[in-house]
Amino acid sequence: MQPIDVTALIEDPHGTYARLREAGPVHRVTGPDGRPAWLVTRYDDVRRALADPRLSLDRRHALPGNYSGFSLPPALDANLLNMDPPDHTRVRGLVVKAFTPGRVDRLRVPVRRVADELLDAVEAGDERRTDLLESYAGPLPIIVICDLLGVPPDARQDFRAWTDALITPDRERPHLMKEAVAGLMGYFTGLIRAKRAEPGDDLLSDLIAVRDGEDALSEDELTSLAFLILFAGYENTVHLIANAVLALLDHPRLLSELRANPDGLGAAVEELGRWDGPSPLAIRRFPLEDMEIGGVRVPAGETVLLSIASANRDPRHFPDPDRLDLRRERSGHLALGHGIHYCLGAPLARMETETALAALLERFKNMELDVPRDALRWRPAIRARGLISLPVRW
Fold it and tell me: What pLDDT score does 360 carry?
């Protein structure tokens, strides 16, 4: 069994996945937690698997001892990333009644206002330099998510420590993960109680009120949905924005073209997500029966990891896949998933990233990295692709 080279997947994920992809479509690997898994690397296989009902997201279908994952209480675990139909169909159907395209569209002006306010604060500093992750790409999504959920400014927390503890657990300090889970649980329980007592014009209040005949979200489903919206919406968007900025700084000609033609931002965000998205791996899956993936037999209950990062650079589907091409055909990338588990917050993530880039490109005409390119460091995780910091000057 081939161990995953964690260092290589963090420092050079695309080169590492390219070698794996050419060596074969599916690999038997040992993950960072020492547990076995099947890693799927080629576009056609990954796309089919993302929509295959025989691959379950419900961890109850995992073989005993084969999968560890987060140890979340039921009130946080009853979310769409751990559900199959018919539960997934029912809960997602209720959520889309509240999380509508109209609600996302109404956020566009407030998001731009927040982006401009954050950049005002950056410009007000004495030096013409900043850590863009700390001052802009990080705060923007959390403010947007809190506005979406209806969290008042004086009740907002710094969620970064909690989400970091879950994404990159410190094995020498396991108490940090337990504290993060307890903090998130307590926070959302109190927030839902407050919204139930005093509803507002926000997504969480609408989720509390939503009904489908006699159906409704259970208390655990409601709490875990609030957790998922924060966790996925915040974490992924932070790194989608930061990765996109770094990619453009690495390609100054494309940056200049995009600044001259901001109408191309929508297509650019699609290509930037394909080229270096925030989620290298889809959520783990467990076969409900023995099955073949890419011609390889995978037994029921074993862990399957679908590499979105590898699929999105597969030359069998994307011509010249390692080239960042902002005019590339937009359809087909898997950065936001595929099938019934396609990212529920995809319209919000796209809008936030497009708005964040537009505000940044208008404000700073000559932005560049403030450290040598090889001094940048990535978060020590194979499930999340995100920088630790992004120092820039202008």
Answer: 96
Pairing of strands 129-131, 391-393: antiparallel
Question: In this predicted model, what pLDDT tens digit does every residue of 140-157 receive, in sequence order?
Answer: 998 998 889 888 777 666
The span from the CA of 203 to the CA of 255, in Å, is: 35
The domain total for the chain is 1
Distances (CA, A) of 233 to 71, 152, 241, 348: 20, 18, 12, 8
Question: What is the Cα–Cα distance from 92 to 115, expressed in whole angstroms?
Answer: 30
Residues 6+ apart with CB under 8 A from 291: 52, 54, 55, 297, 298, 300
Q: What is the CATH number of the domain that holds 89?
A: 1.10.630.10
From the centroid of its chain, how far is CA 381?
A: 13
Sign of CA dihedral 82, 40, 337, 379: positive
Secondary structure letter of residue 99 according to DSSP: S
Tokens of 310: 């590898």
What pLDDT is attached to residue 33?
A: 78
The model carries a pTM of 0.92
Cα 130 to Cα 118, 134, 136, distances in angstroms: 12, 8, 9
Question: Are the beta carbons of 135 and 121 closer than 8 angstroms?
Answer: yes
Domain that holds residue 41: 2-393
Which among 63, 7, 33, 20 has a CA at the least distance from the CA of 298? Answer: 63
Question: pLDDT, tens digit, for every residue of 187-208?
Answer: 888 888 888 888 998 999 998 8
Tell me the C-alpha distance between 311 and 289, whole Å. 24
